[in-house]
Each structure stands twice: as structure tokens, then as C-alpha cells.
Design a protein that fits this description.
A: mainly beta, 4-stranded antiparallel β-sheet, B: 6-stranded mixed β-sheet, about 0% helix, globular
């Protein structure tokens, strides 16, 4: 079964850091670009970041640029999101999603991990 | 604030047809394929339509998508109670160098 499982969410203080992980199973992670998407309470979906299959291409939303870092370890079938200088507005459920080239669709999603930024 | 505009809500009775619009610009919808996602309450998003009008395996043919110029639409025909969810359009934006989601539309089955 094709599956993505996120972990690493929790409570962080403003200005603090968290590292999210996403583990893939049922497919070869190294063949796909990957995304992080978040859903803040009461708001819509927001794309956060994208990394290509070989890590050669990386994009970030302006809202996280300079604070978040996406990375991957294909040997471990894992995707990461290092989140620094956290703000209250980063509070959200964070999903990893498999990306497809061309139409950039995100065709497989994890169940998400919750990040709460509060003092 | 999203660059893709959707109506905040839409509703219909069982069996009716509901249409959701997604308005963008030349740097996103005008240049790239539109995808649609369904998010049921308390669940992760799910790919509903890709490449403007293609359905992934397992998605009922009651769902259809279209695109014209800088706008796109999702239609749900034969509305069912299990279609109550939030629906989002999404597309790559060449100016922002990133995916952008629409503002989202909550569909209610009356």
C-alpha cells in the first residue's frame, strides 16, 4: 500500500524549532518530488515547500522562506522539514504529499502532524 | 491571501448539480494545469481532479473539471451526502515559483 506517515509535530515556543519527518512506504521515494502543505485552524490549505527527487530543485512559500528548510534522504525513504524561528501563525496541521511532474499534482498525502506554536 | 479565488460556500439538495469556480491569472491558471482536492471533515486532502479534467482511479465520474483562460471549474453532478467537504483548486504559479491553493469552497448538502 502506498503510504506517507508524518511525525515530529508538537508544541513549540515562539522563536523555537521543530523538525518534521515524513516516511514513505509502498513506493520508491527517490522517483518523486515531494511537498509539504499546511492547514492552519479556520483557514485554507497553504503550500509550504517542494523538493525534487534528487534535491536539485527546492522552492518555498514566501511565508516560510529563510526560516524553514526542506530536505530528504532517499536511502531512508524519508522527507524532512526543519522549522526555525517559529511564529504563532505557523500553527497548523502539516502534511507531506507526493508530487508529480508536469501538472504538479499532489497525488498521495499523509494524515498529517500537528504543530502548535505558543508560549 | 490566495491568488486563486473561490466562492466560500456552495450547496444543493441530493441529486442536484453544484459548480465551484476558481479564478486566477495568466501566471497560474492561464499557464498551467489545474488540480482539485477534496478535504472531508477531519481528514487529509485527497486528489480529486488533475490536469484540468482528469479523474484519478476511484473517483466517481460525478466529479468533473474544466478550464478556460484564467478560470477553472469543478462540477459535482448527482450530489450525495458524502460529498459534504471542502474543495480546493490548486495550480503552479510561474511568478511565485510555487503551488498555490484556492481559498476553498465548503459544499453543503441540504
Amino acid at each position: 500500500e502506498v503510504q506517507l506517515v508524518e511525525s515530529g509535530g508538537g508544541l513549540a515556543q515562539p522563536g523555537g524549532s521543530l523538525r518534521l519527518s515524513c516516511t514513505a512506504s509502498g513506493f520508491t521515494l527517490s522517483s518523486y518530488g515531494m511537498n509539504w502543505v499546511r492547514h492552519a485552524p479556520g483557514k485554507g490549505l497553504e503550500w509550504v515547500s517542494y523538493i525534487s527527487s534528487s534535491s536539485s530543485t527546492i522552492y518555498y512559500a514566501d511565508s516560510v522562506k529563510g526560516r524553514f528548510t526542506i530536505s530528504r534522504d532517499n536511502a531512508k525513504n524519508s522527507l524532512y522539514l526543519q522549522m526555525n524561528s517559529l511564529r504563532a501563525e505557523d500553527t497548523a496541521i502539516y502534511y507531506c504529499a507526493r508530487g508529480r511532474t508536469g501538472d504538479r499534482r499532489m497525488d498521495v498525502w499523509g494524515k498529517g502532524t500537528t504543530v502548535t506554536v505558543s508560549s | 491571501q490566495s491568488v486563486l479565488t473561490q466562492p466560500p460556500s456552495a450547496s444543493g439538495t441530493p441529486g442536484q448539480r453544484v459548480t465551484i469556480s476558481c479564478s486566477g491569472s495568466g501566471s497560474n491558471i492561464g499557464s498551467n494545469a489545474v488540480n482539485w482536492y477534496q478535504q472531508l471533515p477531519g481528514a487529509a486532502p485527497k486528489l480529486l481532479i488533475f490536469s484540468n479534467n482528469q479523474r484519478p482511479s476511484g473517483v466517481p465520474d460525478r466529479f468533473s473539471g474544466s478550464k478556460s483562460g484564467t478560470s477553472a471549474s469543478l462540477a459535482i453532478s448527482g450530489l450525495q451526502s458524502e460529498d459534504e467537504a471542502d474543495y480546493y483548486c490548486a495550480v503552479w504559479d510561474d511568478s511565485l515559483n510555487g503551488n498555490v491553493f484556492g481559498t476553498g469552497t465548503k459544499v453543503t448538502v441540504l
